[in-house]
Amino acid sequence: MEKTIAAVSTGSAPGGIGVIRISGSRAVEIANAVFKPFDNSSLLELKGYRAKYGSIVIDGEKADNAVALVFRAPKSYTGEDVAELSVHGGMLLVQKTLEAVLKAGAVPAGPGEFTKRAFLNGKLDLTQAESVAELISAEGEQSLKASYNALQGALSNKINSVLEKLLDSSATMAAWVDYPDEEIPELTDGELEKTLEQCALELKALLDNYENGKTVTKGVVTAIAGRPNVGKSSLMNMLTKTEKSIVTHIEGTTRDIVEESVRLGGLVLHLRDTAGLRSSDDLVESIGIEKAYKALDDAQLVLAVFDNSLSLDGFDRDLISRCKGRAAVAVINKTDLEARLDTSEIEVAFSEIVYISAKNNEGFEELAAAVERLLGVADFDSSAPLLANARQKKNCENAYGEIIEALDALRAGVTFDAVNVMIDSAADELLSLTGKKASAEVVNNIFSKFCVGK
Ligand code: GDP
Q: Ligand 1 pocket check: which of 234, 246, 366 to mutate, most ligand atoms within 8 Å of Cβ?
C-alpha cells in the first residue's frame, strides 16, 4: 500500500499561517492523532471538504489553535484522502507539528510527491503538473497567466485534439489494411492528407510560439550598455525603482555587474548593469570592462544608452556597431538637457529608439512598448496553448516531424501500413508529452525538480 506522506506546504519563512499537508489512506487518522476539535468531535467522522477548529496536541500538550481541513478520495488534490493542518506560521511551530505528524505514522514527502500522486491518480496530466511548477516560479504577469492556462488544460486540450485526429486516421487505415473487403468508411488519400496537414499545422503553431512563450515566461537576459555617465545606473534605478545600483558621476565606480530582475510591461527583464564601456589602464576597472563586453555579448536584449546632451564619441560608435543585427533598443537619455546628439547614425542602426529622462522618471512606458515590439511579444496571447519547456517542445517537434514524413510518404504513394507506422510514432510522442505514455524516468525527473510540499 502507498505510504501516507506529509510535508510543510507553505514557504520556509515565518508567515501568518503554515500548512502541513498529509496525503494517503491514513491521512485523516494521522491528522486526528495530533488535532483535537474544540467541539470534541473526531476528524474520522468528518466528510470531505469540511473544516474543524481545534488544537494541535504535541506530546500530550496543546501547542496551538489550528484549523484542520479534510478532503476525501478521490476529491482531493492528490486523489487520495488528504488532511491539511493550518497552524500559526512560526517556523518552530510548523516544524514541531510536522514532526508530530511524522511520529503519528506519516513519512516525509519527497519533492513534488503530492503533485506526482495527483498525476499518477489521473487528477492532472504532465503538462498541467509542469504548469504547477511554473506557477510557483512565475515572476511576470504574462507568465502567471500562461501557467494558469496550462493548469486549466489549454495545452492538454490542444494536444489531445491533435492526438484524437491521428488515432482516428490510424485506426481507419489499419482497418483498411487488415480488412480490405469489409465495408469501412471510405478513407481516400485526399481526406487523410487533409487531416494530417491540419495536425501538422496545429503543432507548427505551437512550435512557432515556443520562443515567444519562453521570452514571456522565463524573462529576457538584458544588458544595459553605454559609455560612462550616460545614465546606465540611473536607468537601472528607474526600472527597479530602488537604489540598488550605485548612481554616481565618478567614472569607473560601477566596476562589477549588478544584476536584478524587473518587470517591464508584461515581461521580466534580467538586467545587467555594466561598467562603462571604454578602455582603462586600471586592472580592476579593466576586468569590469571585460565583464561588461561579455554581458553585452551574452544578452538576449541590449538597452544601448546614449547621452542626449553630448555628441557621439568613439565608444558610442563602437556600441552602435556591436548592436547591429542584435535585439537592441537605443535609449537616448537626459532629454531634460539641451540636445547636442545627432541621432542619424543611431537611426540607421536601431529599429527602436526611445527618448527618456532617467532623472525625471520619464519614458518608462515607451521603453516597455519598444521592448515588447522588438521581441515580438507585443501581441502575445497568454491564453493560447503554450509549450512550457524543452521536454514538451522536443515531443512536439518529433511528432511534427513524423507527421511531415507521413505526408511525404502518402504523397509518394507509399502503402497505408507504412504510413501508419509514422502516424503511430507521432501519436506516441504526443502521448509522452501529456504523460499518458511517459517513462518512469521522465516522470521522476519532472517531479524531482519540484519543491517539497508541492
Ligand atoms: P552611468 O555611469 O552610465 O551608470 O551613469 P549614472 O547613472 O551614474 O549617471 C551619471 C550622471 O548623469 C549622474 O550624475 C546622474 O545623476 C546623471 N543623469 C542620469 N540620468 C539623467 C537624466 O535623465 N538627466 C540628467 N540631467 N542627468 C542624468
A: 234
CA atoms within 13 A on the CB side of 191: 11
Please tell me the distance from the alpha carbon of residue 150 to that of residue 130, in angstroms, as a whole number.
9
> Among 224, 227, 229, which residue has the most ligand 1 atoms within 8 Å of its CB, making it the best to mutate?
229
Give start and end residues of each alpha helix (H) in 40-140: 91-103, 113-120, 126-137
User: 432 near 442, Cβ under 8 Å?
Assistant: yes
Ligand 1 atom 6, closest CA: 231
Residue type, 5: I
Alpha carbons 173 and 192: distance in angstroms, whole number:
9
Greater pLDDT, 145 or 367: 367
Q: At residue 160, what is the residue type?
A: N
Q: Are 77 and 114 a contacting pair, CB within 8 Å?
A: yes
φ and ψ at residue 205, rounded to 5 degrees: -60, -40
pLDDT at 248 over 50: no
**What value does the mean pLDDT of the chain take?**
86
Per-residue pLDDT at 4 exceeds 50: yes
Question: For residue 329, what pLDDT band results from cuts at 50, 70 and 90?
Answer: very high
Cβ neighbours for 150, distance < 8 A, ≥ 6 positions apart? 127, 128, 130, 131, 134, 156, 385, 386, 388
Region 124-140 average pLDDT: 79
CA angle 108, 110, 115 (to 5 degrees): 115
Q: How many Å lie between the centroid of ligand 1 and the Cα of residue 249?
A: 7
Q: Which of 112, 110, 114 is nearest to 134 (CA)?
A: 112
Q: Find the helix or strand (DSSP H, E) in which 419 lies.
A: helix 416-434
pLDDT tops 60 at residue 153: yes
Query: How much distance in Å is there from the Cα of 231 to the middle of ligand 1?
Result: 4
Ligand 1 binding pocket (C-beta < 6 A) is: 226, 228-234, 247-249, 254, 276, 333-334, 336-337, 357-359
* Residue whose C-alpha cell is 511525404: 408
Closest atom of ligand 1 to 226 CA is: 3
Distance, CA of 111 to CA of 442 (rounded, Å): 15
